[in-house]
Specification:
- The protein has 13 helices and no strands.
């Protein structure tokens, strides 16, 4: 092998690594949005009380167009934009972005603030989480952008989690579930299976929405061979289906990559190109920081 051959082999390996990361980053954000959109017909329904979701249909309580998504995706994408514009986890910037969504539908799929929960609404109006209201699972669903931003620095991810969670949530149980989900996401972005030891088990699930979302998404992905099977399993469990679909969708998208997401569904997803661009922008930031550290 000549010196030039060695350089070429190195470049090829580096390009292959970037391509894999791009697939996982795009898979995580697109998987989040598509999991949210797929869940429309099952939203708020008990498991077994509705025909199993097998296709991208729209409809549901919000009468969504096919491929449109709700608050879970809107808030996650607004977090991406805040991370990029602030160059880090800035709670005040996140709060202001979420308020624009609440007031004007900015950053939504339909131009409306769809699916906002009472706890999020109060947090945005008051500027702090309302301790007399139970947390939703919105903070857990926002994990993917932060895990991607801190792909190369897991300690920084866990340092920023309380900041991100605290914009809309207050309970220690919410932070604990979100921290565990962040561990799974960080592993999945590296292609590692999420079936690791957990402090939260089905027998100990409490009343918190974040704990239920964690267990549903984790178990659906751990028992699946591809994105589609994982996300449909999470959605068809019923309950807060858009949360479960978005959580499983980002985790499975990171683990299996964009190639595992059905192309026919991606073609119908609202704002697909913008979501891909946001994923690519996060990856660019990661690669720049990795390059600066070498």
């Amino acid at each position: 092998m000549t010196p030039d051959d060695g350089v070429g082999a190195f470049d090829h390996a580096a390009l292959a690594t970037v391509a894999r990361l791009r697939s996982r980053f795009r898979g995580a954000l697109l998987g989040l949005a598509l999991g949210d959109a797929l869940a429309a017909p099952a939203q708020y329904a008990r498991a077994g009380s509705f025909p199993p979701v097998r296709d991208l249909l729209g409809g549901g309580p919000y009468d969504l167009p096919v491929g449109a998504w709700t608050d879970d995706t809107a808030l996650a994408l607004l977090l991406v934009r805040s991370l990029l514009s602030s160059q880090g986890c800035n709670a005040n910037d996140q709060l202001e972005g979420y308020r624009r969504w609440q007031r004007r539908g900015e950053g939504s799929a339909t131009g409306e603030c769809l699916g906002i929960t009472a706890s999020v609404s109060r947090a945005l109006v008051d500027g702090r989480p309302a301790k007399d209201l139970s947390d939703g699972a919105d903070a857990l669903v926002r994990v993917a952008p932060l895990a991607m931003w801190h792909y190369s620095a897991v300690d920084a991810l866990f340092d920023d989690l309380p900041v991100m969670v605290g914009v809309t949530s207050h309970a220690p149980e919410t932070l604990a579930a979100t921290r565990e989900f962040a561990t799974l996401m960080h592993r999945a972005l590296r292609g590692l299976l999420p079936a690791i030891g957990s402090a939260i088990t089905p027998a100990s699930i409490g009343p918190t929405a974040a704990e239920r979302a964690l267990i549903t998404a984790r178990d659906a992905v751990a028992g699946a061979q591809n994105w589609k099977d994982a996300v449909l399993a999470a959605i068809n469990a019923g309950g807060d289906a858009d949360v479960h679909g978005a959580a499983a969708g980002q985790l499975a998208g990171a683990l299996f990559g964009i190639e595992s997401i059905p192309a026919r569904w991606l073609a119908t997803l609202h704002q697909r190109e913008q979501i891909e661009s946001l994923a690519d922008a996060l990856l660019t930031e990661v690669l720049v920081r990795l390059d600066d550290s070498t």
